[in-house]
Design brief:
With about 850 residues, the chain is mostly helical. The protein contains 45 helices and 10 strands.
Amino acid sequence: MWPITGREAELRSIQQAIARRRSVVVRGAAGAGKTRLAHESTRSGRPRGALTWLALATRSSCDIPYGAFSAVLVNEFASTGPSPRAILERMARFGSERGLAVVIDDAHHLDRHSAALVLQAAVARVAGIVVTVRDGESPPDAVTALWKDGIAERVELAPMDRPTSNRMIEAALGGPVADSVSHRIFALARGNPLYTRLFVEGSLHEGTLQSVEGVWRLRDGAGAPDELLQLVRSRVRVDDRTVVEVVEHLAVCEPLDLDIVHDLVGRDGVESAERMGLVRVMEHEIMPVVIFAHPLYGEVVRRDAAQSALRRVRANLVGALARRGEAETLRRGILHLGADMPRDPDLLCHAAHRAKNAFDLGLTLRLADAAIAGGGGREARLLRATTLSFLGRDADSEREFAELTFEGLDDLTRAAIMIARSGTMLFPGQDPGGARRLLDLAEPDAGEGAPAIAAMRLLVDVFSAPVIPSAEDIRAIVDVGTGSAAGDYMAMWAWLAACGPRGLVNPQDALLARAYAMSEASDLSNTRFGFADTHLLGLRLAGYGPEILALSEQRQAEVEGVPDPTGAHGVYLRGAAAFYRGRLDIAIRSLREARAGMEPLRRLGLVTRCMQSLTQALGMRGEAGEAAEALAETKALSHPSLAWSVPEELLADAWTRAATGDRRAAVAAASKAATAAGERGATGHEALALQVAARFGDVAAAERLVEVTGSISSPGPRRWRMYAVALTHADAEGLVRASRQEELEGDLVAAADMAAQAAECWRRNGAAARAQLHAERATRLAAAAGGARTPVLATARVEVVLSPREREIADLVTRGLANRAIAEQLGVSARTVEGHVYRLMGKLGVERRTEIREVFESG
């Protein structure tokens, strides 16, 4: 049984009405869940022994007097026939003796006798009555009178929103659903509970919906299951040939400009299809467009139409969409693949570039192959070579690169090819040494392309060399420019990757916006996820918490609803941002989903980065077994081109050891991460690793943290320095301030740890009550962080028992009341209040009355 989700308020309202013998009319579209809600309202929450009458109105019973009640009035139908008065008396007797609920489903099909009976029963309030009516139907006047005259309450069932739809699906499946699956189901079902259920059940039956590493995913290319399409198949079958032409054109390309459909099919076909409810014409940007009235109609047409007809339609559209210019390049290229027409290599090649920028590598390869088959030359082969490398087919990629000729190319074009080839070696090829050798050989003869080659060489070094190159030197190259868009972009990325580990990223730097704009306006946008990952980690190491969230939301919005693996990259950025902000529940769920969705691109490095963060998040939650498994996978995925993020892998080891309770080993691993970062010149990463070691209780790490952060002016290192100074001096108040700063601007898990360390300081100082208050705050922060269970949190609880009267007086003192005012309010003597305040100060470990307020306000 699928759970009722998102209808809890409506369910309570109906149950309350039944308890008061009131009537309710539930209206909604077909499949909105009216019947389920009506029946559930009488099943749960009713008194023991109460009766329920279920009446079902149908088209076949609408001409039979009292036909809807035939199942519950068997004796009356078997004898002289039902009498309205007798039925009402019977309902009244049951209602008063045992309690009676009456459910009339599909009341728009009621015969007039039954409808009149329902109206009389509702007016007399002989029972709680629930009536369901489908939108778009015309019920009998007596049923309409129920809500029109205020006799019954009216409940409108709107479609579910996407979060509600997702909750229902996950409750039914018993596990998380990938974002791309949630988006796909919602786009087709439009929040209709019945359609949603049939999609899930049908996909399970057909084997297209499967659990992959704990996340429910759809098989690539899976359409709507036939069980769902059966509901609307009869609706789409039409004889009018012009209408068929309209829906076939939409089935292969939706939406379509209205004027294009008019030109291809004619006005009459569009108007007829619109009158039949198959399509809608809606305003969109500059001109109106035509879309299906429901997305399932397109699924049915694509499934049932003759493929030869669809190939002809695609060919028509390739030509017709040309009037829209470059905006339609990708759609035209995709249509071209399945059209009856000669290959157009230029169109296919341009479309392949668009597909590559959308990170749809399978489509890129199909388009590039088609372009080559149609006579496409060097550009198509370069696309094929780079795409093969991204897909892990290194030998095929190298063969394509080797066959490329440079004859007739200018310096900048040759440099762009060298950048592309070295880039495939660096990330998917996992061969930074090979990338360096290639660039070193190319640079002396590169001519005007030499600066671009040098910029790419810097990017290789930033990610993989033993020591990070100077960020200032790279910035100088960026400011001068390389004469090449690709070279300029690689220089910007190298600069960001050099600043990030040093904790020097400034979110307001105009260069960042310039780099994103450059990637989106060129053939470089397939790198934007790697660039954004570099940016996010840089913001974390510089301590810009709010900016982390804003960046991840912006980048994820760009791929909302896009199929995996592209969509999964957006989910990864969401998970990474949640982890950096200490929201472990969101982080773990998102990172697990991203890990499964990015599997086809595991060689690129982002899967490695994903596992580094996931392992740490699991360790922070104390999930020792799962963290150990994730750590093993992280190490197996270790990427030679990601020396830049080695400290993250070592911190994953540290948090895994912390989850087992081995603080000494955890400190050693975190210290190793700090050393590795320091040797590369990554002072920001070194500071983070030292902060983690200090949170594990290593005072020596805190002392080193004070030294390292002295030269970094970014907000994160400044906060960590304040924390380290407080820890080394056992300054409880300083730890409280550090915790509050981290809570506001940084990481909730770190804030919880710092609060717990403040509690420990108070305990050692004999201030047990303050220790308890800050331990309680640490516990609240840990819960807000999604269930953090770190070593220091495990030992933070301190119990101080205050009597109810002492708590009451402490509350009044905190509000600023004097002893005399407290005495008047409580009806006791001022001397009694003074005695309570004195004992309270002793328990709290404070010497002055004013400190009581400080203790409670700080906790």
